[in-house]
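TA notes, week 10

Several of you asked for a full example with nothing omitted. So below is the full record: structure tokens for the whole chain, then the designed sequence directly under it. When grading your own attempts, check the secondary structure regions first.
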């Protein structure tokens, strides 16, 4: 294969991936704005300025597009947590918690959408392979967190409870924080959501430290 042929193939792949990302970004924007049921492949195609037939060269269905959004989000959280775990091992005990809350609370609308997508797709046979990948990412992350938290407990930095208590408490707090952003009984009363989320994240980073439990 000549150098020019190789360059052409690389350029074609680059354009393909760029177009695919435009489809994903457009779908994500529409899903957040309009809701899952209102968005169609035709609407995504029109908004992205890409022919509907071309969209189907990338994704076979709307479900596959939504699943890709889920996967990208899950991989991003997993990667950020892994970086946080490494930082924790190097001496910053709160790094993993910081990474987790930053990942989920930096864009509550996206986090909420991903939860809605999972509820919609969890029993869909057409994306069962991709859903299994999501679960695999979570299991791998949980295993790494378990080992990290166990070390922090052994060092006397965290309360001596089963390790999963610590990271599931972070999950519960982040979950509640996202819900607060969209709860009409609370969210509509305040205009300081960003500060509120920063405050909640700070609580999440410090909760579970040794000495907080009172028997």
């Amino acid at each position: 294969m000549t150098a020019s042929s190789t360059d052409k193939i690389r350029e074609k792949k680059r354009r393909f991936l760029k177009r695919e990302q435009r489809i994903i970004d457009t779908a994500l924007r529409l899903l957040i704005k309009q809701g899952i049921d209102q968005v169609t492949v035709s609407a995504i195609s029109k908004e992205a300025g890409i022919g509907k037939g071309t969209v189907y060269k990338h994704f076979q269905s709307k479900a596959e597009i939504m699943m890709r959004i889920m996967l990208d989000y899950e991989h991003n959280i997993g990667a950020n947590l892994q970086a946080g775990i490494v930082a924790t091992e190097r001496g910053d005990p709160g790094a993993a918690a910081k990474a987790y809350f930053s990942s989920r609370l930096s864009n509550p609308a996206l986090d909420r959408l991903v939860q809605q997508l999972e509820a919609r797709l969890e029993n869909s046979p057409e994306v069962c392979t991709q859903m299994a990948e999501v679960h695999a990412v979570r299991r791998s992350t949980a295993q790494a967190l378990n080992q990290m938290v166990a070390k922090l407990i052994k060092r006397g930095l965290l309360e001596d409870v089963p390790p999963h208590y610590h990271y599931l408490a972070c999950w519960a707090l982040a979950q509640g924080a996202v819900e607060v952003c969209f709860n009409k009984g609370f969210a509509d009363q305040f205009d300081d959501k960003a500060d509120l989320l920063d405050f909640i994240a700070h609580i999440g980073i410090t909760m579970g430290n040794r000495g907080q439990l009172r028997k």
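The mean pLDDT is 92. Use that as a sanity check on your answer.
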